Amino acid sequence: MYGTILVPIDGSSTSTNAFECSVSIARATGATIKVMFVVEPVEYELADEDSTVRSAARRRGREILSSVAESGAAADLTIERDICKGVPYQEIVAFAESEADLIVLGTHGLTAETGPGSTIQRVLSTVETPVLAVPPDTSLPDDGPRCILLATDGSESASQTTNHALELAANVGSTVDVLHVIDETNPALTDPSQPMNELARQGGHDLVERLQTAASERQLPVTTVVTRGVPGMEITSRANTVGADLIAMGVRGRATPSEQLLGGTTVRVLRQAEQPVLLSR
């Protein structure tokens, strides 16, 4: 399923968590892990100072990559290392589009206090490769996720993620819980007695039934639920209720304005989730 997993590392604890999650996925799928450290451009420095700063950054990068590679080697995995120079999200996207089947990336790095940070937002809005976003203090079981919560609104982005999530579940033997949330913040759906709500409810059931069929065709244990509420809150609550190890959802929903990098629900889930989140455009 995955031949190469790209893991950008910047020395933050969140990027270390991301690497540990990639080890779990690689164990389950037999993938090679490519760890990358990006030396960012230095602005407003003299030539000699610029060279010194870059040399120090490269030394730090080598030390960080050596440390994570050793832990991966102990797990009997193939770990490749690369140090490159450039803008982080651009380097991540360039490598991923040519060589990676999955990106595993912390929700924020050293310069952001809470996620999602600017790098992961730009990656998610640009790259076609699926991304496993890893919030702080989250992890996966050693042999991959045992339960995947698949949240869907029927958007193209959610459909793309569904394909990746079901393939991952089939490879590692996960159970799948399919969730559709009728968004009660939508002005057209505030009154449950109105005909529009019945149409939304029926559409939600039709959607989860199609995904249930897709999961069953892969011989995956699957449960489904359609509920009303605020989507971000319902997704994280359901993930905790069913004991999901991983949440899968789209980067952008049906109602996301074109100028936004990420959908509002996606941002809320990335801030609140206690599990890694699989995302695709």
From TrEMBL:
<comment type="similarity">
    <text>Belongs to the universal stress protein A family.</text>
</comment>
<dbReference type="InterPro" id="IPR014729">
    <property type="entry name" value="Rossmann-like_a/b/a_fold"/>
</dbReference>
<protein>
    <submittedName>
        <fullName>UspA domain-containing protein</fullName>
    </submittedName>
</protein>
<dbReference type="Pfam" id="PF00582">
    <property type="entry name" value="Usp"/>
</dbReference>
<feature type="domain" description="UspA">
    <location>
        <begin position="1"/>
        <end position="135"/>
    </location>
</feature>
<dbReference type="InterPro" id="IPR006016">
    <property type="entry name" value="UspA"/>
</dbReference>
<dbReference type="InterPro" id="IPR006015">
    <property type="entry name" value="Universal_stress_UspA"/>
</dbReference>
<feature type="domain" description="UspA">
    <location>
        <begin position="148"/>
        <end position="280"/>
    </location>
</feature>
